[in-house]
Write the structure tokens for this entry.
Amino acid sequence: MFTINNVFWGIATIGTTFFLHIFFVTVVLGLSVIIPIFEIIGYIRKDEKFYRFARRLTSYLIRVDLFAGVLATWLTVFLASYWPSLLYIATNVLFYPISLALGGIMVAIVSMALYWYTWDYMKRRTHIAVGLFMSAGALAVAFGMNSILAMMYCPYGVSTTSSMGLTFFGSNGLDPLNNPIFLPLALYTWFISISLVSFIVLAFAIFRSKNDFTDEFQHTMRTSRALSLIFSFLSLATIVWTLLELRGYSQYVYHQMSARGFVLISIVLAAVVALLSIISLLEDAARYAAPAGAFLSYLLFMFFEVTSNTSRYPYLVVTNSTGIPASSLVNPLFNIPDILPIAGLLVMIGMLATFLFTLYLAFFVFPVDGRSKTAT
Amino acid sequence: MILFSVLLNEIADGYLATNSTWNSANMAELMTIVGIYVHAFFLIFAVGFPIVALTLESIGIARKDDDYINLARNASKLWGITFAAGAVTGTLVEFGLVVVWSGTIALMASMAAAPLIIELYAFIIEIVLIGTYLTTFGKIKRWRYGHVLIGVGVLIGSNLSAYAILAVNAWMQVPWGTGNMVSQFFLPWVPTLGPLVIDPSKLKTLATVLPIVGSSLLSSPGAFQLLSNFTSNPWIALFNPESNATYFHNLLAALIVTSFLAASYLSFKIIRGYGLPAYNWKGLKVSFFIASIATFLQAVAGDYQGRLLYMYQRNIFNATEGIPPRGGYDPIVSILLYGNPSHFFPGSDYLASLLPQNDSLGQLTLNATNLYGPILHLMYYAMVVSGVILAVIAVGHFGLYSKLLRKIVEGILRIKVETFVLYGSFAGAILSIVASVTGWATREMGRHPWTVYGLITYNDVVNSHSITPLFTAAIIALEIGILMAGLWGIYMIFFKKLKAKHGGGVHYQ
């Protein structure tokens, strides 16, 4: 049957792209928030070291963001090609939150480019304002896009009308924003992203401080510690909140997760990350606790995303203890030739390797610090 | 922005409104027009400008001349910043398409699926390799052409991406693979559009149901299932003759605009005395030469595009050429098409006579063509005349290399050829932008009221949510903000430091 092919490739392409996308985009979100914090502290304390550190982190942010952005485009086109009804229902029902995310994308990327290219060209306060736009834009993207996942866990605020024996899905205005899973899920995404990036930045500073003659890394560690402490505890609180809402409003997903022990593992991981943020406060233990915190918070983030999203299977949209099967929403118009997703997989592997190699060149072989940005 | 939204409200109430759906479609169209033009401004650099940058770099390597390498390095900075802005605005356009024109998801799930999926792969190749290209500029010492090869990889990626996107746009103009369905449904003057690879009954269902339920059709998985096995050849859009014409026409346009812009920047530096004249002249000669060659080729590509317009979209051809409703003569076009100046071109009255009774969409098409006819004619000829002047400038520029042409140019204009080239580059930049903007406007405006010519209208695909003037104003403000930010970034890198760096400069004599 042709639909089996489209269902298989639809799940494979969306799954691969989605998990790769969030793997990179979480770093973008976290960095977009914490970089302006470093700059603001530098401004308040009139401390050049914070500026330098923020600038260094921005150069990393720019590179990761471009790749993460491409994967967002992949997601949209694969959704339109394999799951057109789902995409249509999402854009229609969630018109406002997705529009917010769309605005967030525009604001975030433009302000990110300005933030990078205008370093030293703008008054510091104006530059900080651009940075805050970058943060707000990144947070808005994550906020708006989580409404799609929340809808797939629990189609709250979706109206249904019947005509000619067919069911049409529509919107109840702003009701989808009251989806009980939406807010905790969006907040959790924010907090875990900031937490894991804080840990990464702390571990990076500890690693680089061995040969640091300017105290840049030593100086900024306290801020990274404070951020990881605050946001890892917030992550713990919001993941528990999200799981409680899943138990109430998306029972199928919750049962699938709890039956396999995923709920317990998620909470334990979040608790360990929070504990590591406390241990990182200790000067000697931080060199082990920070990398461990970075690794485990990344693991927690990916583990929760993978397990909660795959727990919907075989449904694409869960309605409490049952759902709409993937095969009902798959593209029925034609059998998308297998060569297209297979070629995509090969291109993805090749380009991912090239991208990582370029990052290696940029960070370790030809560091960015000394490059001129103006024309000769 | 509030004022702007009030203005849009006024426009919507006063000029555009017939009912609420029209309002939404028109509002959506406004923001789409601005968004696509902003995107186009940046993407032309991704499509055409790499040819300039890579040519400069290759000459530098071949002649072991660091001036060319430095020119290429500067060009690569512009390439990088415009690429980033193009990627942002491309994402915006794509999301806008899905969110605002959500009915087009059906197109993306059918005839546009293969080109758009291929475009994804081209896009990732382009974005990854441009990062590698910029990171390794000047770092590869052993085999320096290796760096050029990475750039060629970016060029291939960007052009494959452009081809795939333009193939979708071309399919919206000429829905290849629909056989004679378009002429049977609504537009009887349209010839057979390739082999029939779409199930006629499914296409008829789609064309009949969409005007009634609009894009909401997609909100019912069951209704969508009624269209199963819609097409037997998902690749057909890539083999549309209109795709090739559109691609070459746009590639050359991008090359002409960006080469002239690069030439005018270098002319500006020479006139204001920023930097060594010899250095700037090297870049100016290369970019002007590329622009000139592309201008000559564009005459061929434009002619081919025009022939396709005549063949497949006769009502738009009539409007652009200014053929009156009763028909008339156009000697130049007649010679180009038929080899004699006296061919009679039937006008819209003849096309209307072909319409079957109750073909309201066919009539609406001719009404739109007649309504927009004068402006289409004006814009089309703005493009053609700009192109002719560009060709004259391109010929004159060869006075740099030919004594005869130098004499002619200097004899007619009473200025040195060098001065002609310096100021000609500004004229070239402006005229090429005028030609591009009016060319695209003619193409898109001419298709009214159709999203897919002869099959699906704007109203059929706009989101069922009301697109309010405030929402439109907000999006347009963001789009213009992106354009401003990109231009400001270019200014910061390429203009702001010039005076300080070169000590105020010496004016060109």
